Amino acid sequence: MVADPRALNSWRRWGYRLLPGDLFSYVLHLRPAEWPIMAGHTLLGYVLAVGIGGAVRGARLPQAIGALVVWVVFLNGGTLAINSVFDKDEGDIGYLNAPPPLPRHLLAFSAALLAGGQLLAFAFPVAFRIDYAICLVLSILYSVPPFRFKAVAGVDWVINMWGFGTLTPFAAWAATGRALDMGHALVLLGFCPLFAGLYPLTQLYQMEEDRRRGDRTLALMLGMRASLAVAIACTVLAFGLFAWAAALLWVRAWLLVVPLIMWLALLAPWYARRDALSAAAQQRGMYRALGIWAITDLVVLQVFAR
Predict the structure, then answer these.
(1) Which of 9, 107, 193, 206 is surrounded by the fewest CB atoms within 10 Å?
(2) What confidence tens digit (pLDDT) does each residue in 180-216 have?
(3) Domain check: are 105 and 208 in the same one?
(4) Are residue 32 and residue 154 in the same domain, yes or no?
């Protein structure tokens, strides 16, 4: 058993004082540590839609904030909570170290969040409602038996590359009501293979635990070497799509070289030293990749949000 999470650090102790009993455990299983990453990638679609100048002026800002709450807290938080219900992890999991014991009503809580988000989606344009509905179905298929596609190698990969990579920023774009042109569609599409490259990196440090539990993740199916090779190939493909979008939109794309070099500077040494790295080192590599993802978002905005 893990140590009592209420005694692990000061912010958790503060959280349990503010929300006594198991209430703060419900919040932790929403994995708020991921919210800044999810919020940043969601808002990318908003800034692409209104431009950097429009975002500074607050163009369609209420719609963007509303979409952000629905997408990050209700959809993403509910999905991660329902994952916790069926995974029953005791060790560290993504965005939550030493997870607390599962609260009694976590399944009902997560289901209410997911359903409530769909109801709130009706306050937004049709494209946003459809986007949420698609991702809601994907979340259920991903997490809930008898489907539980997160344990089916390859299917989990496809769900995540589309759900997080492309459909997440499209949600904020759709919330503005702006029609999607071909150039910006390619920009959003580029994040599909980019996340396809990131996704196996999130599994490498958990391979032993996943193997013991009987899950057949993408990383386990491919192995360490092929997983990293896929990450490199998908990253290059993503930047190829960004370059295509730049050609269609007639924008200068030289800044995209910066995050591309950062990705390759992380992945190439990781590939070369893969057999010598511990699980902790693999986990640190995953978090560095998340940082490079954030930089990629910023550069993409600088190039395309005009």
Answers:
(1) 9
(2) 999 999 999 999 999 999 999 988 988 888 788 777 7
(3) no
(4) yes
Confidence grade of residue 98 (pLDDT, cut at 50, 70, 90): confident
Find where tokens 């344990």 sit: 151
Q: Which residue pairs from 128-132 have beta carbons closer than 8 angstroms and sit at least 24 positions apart in sequence?
A: 128/67, 128/171, 128/174, 128/175, 131/167, 131/170, 131/171, 131/174, 132/70, 132/71, 132/75, 132/171
Q: Where are the alpha helices (DSSP H) in 58-122?
A: 61-69, 78-87, 106-120
String of DSSP letters for 225-252? HHHHHHHHHHHHHHHHHHHHHHHHHT--
Total number of domains in the chain: 2
3-state DSSP assignment of residue 78: helix
| CB-based contact 66:124 (threshold 8 Å) | yes
**The two three-digit tokens of residue 18, written as one number:** 């503010």
Q: Find the mean pLDDT for residues 105-114.
A: 96
CA-wise closest residue to 220 among 134, 152, 141 = 152
- Together in a domain, 121 and 240: no
Contact predicate 88/102, CB 8 Å: yes
Where a domain ends, among 163, 179, 195? 179
**169 plus 186 within the same structural domain:** no
